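To: structure subgroup
Subject: Chain for Friday's discussion

All,

I'm putting the inputs and outputs inline so they're searchable in the archive.
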Amino acid sequence: MSRPLDNIQHKPDKFDATTESRAMFSTSNIQRTQPIRPRDQMNWPTGTQNGGTITGTTYQGGTGERYQAARPKDGIDRPTDSLDSTTINRSTYQGGTGERYQAARPKDGIDRPTDSLDSTTINRSTYQGGTGERYQAARPKDGIDRPTDSLDSTTINRSTYQGGTGERYQAARPKDGIDRPTDSLDSTTINRSTYQGGTGERYQAARPKDGIDRPTDSLDSTTINRSTYQGGTGERYQAARPKDGIDRPTDSLDSTTINRSTYQGGTGERYQAARPKDGVIVH
C-alpha cells in the first residue's frame, strides 16, 4: 500500500497583511479642543458657624431633689410550731418480713435415650462410590472458508482521481465606498452656548424662634412606695429541722439465697460421647 502524493500547489510568496482600512486611515494627529472648566458661582459664607442650641443655653446642669428611700416593715404572720414530718405510711407500716413459700425445683421428666446415635443415611448405604460412564469429548472441525489471497486496498476514488489542479478565479477585494469626513468635530453644545453662568436670586434663610413652653421647676422624683415604706427589718422565726422517725435495722444483711443453700455444686450425669464409624467405601 502506497500513500498518494500531495497535489496542492503551495505559494512561496509571503502573505500580505495590509488592508484597505490600514492603508486609508493611517496614523495622524487630529486637532482637539482644549476643555474649559466654568467658574464656581456659589456664594460661600466666610463667617464662623454658631453651634449653640436652645437646650444648651437654657439647661446649665445641676442636681434635683430626691427623698430618702425607706423599706416597709414585714407584716407576714409566721407559725412557731415545728413541722410534723410523720406520714400515714410511716405510722402504719413499721417494717418486718412477709410470708413466702419455700422454692422447690421440679424433677426432670424427660425420657432420655441410652442407645448410641446411628449416623448412617440412605445416601451412604445406597451409593458406595465408583465411576460413571462418559463419552469422550471431540471438538468439531472449523467449516469457515477463509480466503488466501491478499487484500486489495485500491478504491474508486484513488483509481478515478489521479490529482491535478482545478481552475479558480483570482480573489479581488472591493474598494471601500464610505465617505468619511475630514473636518474636526465641534464639541460645542446648546447648553454651553446659552447658559454662560451667573448667580440666581435666593431669599435669605431665617430660623424660626422656639415656641415651646418649658417648665422651670425642678422635677419631683418622690413616689408613693418611697413615701409609704420607710424601711426596717421584719421578724423571722428560727428554722428547726424535724427528727428522723425511721426505724433503721442494726443487724447485718443476710446474703444467703435458696439457690446457694440448695445447690452446693458438683458434677451431673452425662452419657459418654460415641462417634459413629465411617461407612464410606473409598476406592
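Points worth raising on Friday:
The two ends are 67 Å apart (CA to CA).
The helical segments are 20-24, 54-58, 88-92, 122-126, 156-160, 190-194, 224-228, 258-262.

D.
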